[in-house]
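Researcher: Structure for this, please.
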Amino acid sequence: MIDLVFERLSRNPHALFTEDELRKADADGFDDFVTTGLIKRGSLDYSRATVLRGGRVLRVVGGPDDSVLQAIDDDDLDFDPVNVRIEDVLLWEFDVVAWAAEFNRRFDIRG
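Model: Predicted structure, token format:
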């Protein structure tokens, strides 16, 4: 998972990640990163949430109290809405400061 994270951060230091892509890359690593605080959940603005499906950017309809979220294509009214999981919408960010502190701790770097 660290390869995925660093590759994306090298292109965009403010990159965000979906829980689903991080778990697919390394489920155990994801849990470790959450436990150690190396990644943290970003805030979710349901009114601006989107997902990619089949080459389409779909707008998420629903909110935190809804049991099912759906994604719609605002440009194609004939497109049937698709159900999405909260894991597809929640975004995570890598905490570079926490990573540097953990790196220093593990390798006993001081100064």
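Researcher: Any notable elements?
Model: The beta strands are 16-18, 39-41, 50-53, 56-61, 69-72, 82-84, 91-94. The radius of gyration is 17 Å.
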